[in-house]
Automatic annotation (TrEMBL):
The chain crosses the membrane at residues 12-30, 42-61, 81-105, 117-136. InterPro entries: MFS_trans_sf (IPR036259). This is Major facilitator superfamily (MFS) profile domain-containing protein. Keywords: Membrane, Transmembrane, Transmembrane helix.
Length: 137
C-alpha cells in the first residue's frame, strides 16, 4: 500500500477514521458535483485516497479484533466474510467505473442521476466513521 507509511504514522485508529472521513466527504461531494471535471477529481483523486487509507486499516483492525492469528475457526470465518465483502466490492468497481465513464462521455446533467444512491453511500460511510470514532481506542 502506498499510504502504508501514513497509516504507520497516524496509527490504526486514526487512519481508519481519516479514511472513513475522506470517503464520506468524497461521496457526498460526488452527489452534488456540478461539473464533469469535479466528478473526475473526486472519483480519481479524493475517493481512492480515502479507500487507500481505510481498506488496509480496516483489514488490520478486523484481524486484531477477531484474533484470526490464533487459528480460532470462528475468527477465521469472520475474517473470511470480510474478504468476501472486499472481493465483491472490488468486482463491482470495474463496472461502476465503466458506467461513470460512459455517463461522463455522454454528458451528465448538473446533479447526477444517481445522486440519491451516492447520498446513501455517503451515509453508510458516515455510519462507519461513527463506529470508528466510538469503538476504536
Amino acid at each position: 500500500a502506498m499510504l502504508g507509511p501514513i497509516i504507520d504514522h497516524f496509527g490504526l485508529a486514526w487512519s481508519l477514521r481519516l479514511g472513513f472521513l475522506i470517503t464520506t466527504v468524497a461521496r457526498g461531494a460526488l452527489a452534488v458535483a456540478p461539473t464533469e471535471r469535479s466528478m473526475q477529481l473526486l472519483i480519481f483523486g479524493l475517493l481512492p485516497v480515502g479507500h487507500a487509507l481505510g481498506a488496509p486499516a480496516l483489514t488490520i483492525a478486523m484481524k486484531r479484533c477477531t484474533g484470526s492469528e490464533s487459528g480460532n475457526s470462528v475468527s477465521t470465518a469472520n475474517f473470511a466474510w470480510l474478504y468476501l465483502a472486499l472481493v465483491l466490492g472490488i468486482a463491482a468497481c470495474g463496472p461502476t467505473i465503466d458506467l461513470v465513464t460512459i455517463f461522463l462521455a455522454s454528458g451528465m446533467p448538473r446533479a447526477s442521476r444517481y445522486s440519491q444512491l451516492l447520498w446513501i453511500c455517503s451515509g453508510l460511510s458516515l455510519v462507519g466513521l461513527m463506529i470508528c470514532i466510538f469503538t476504536l481506542e
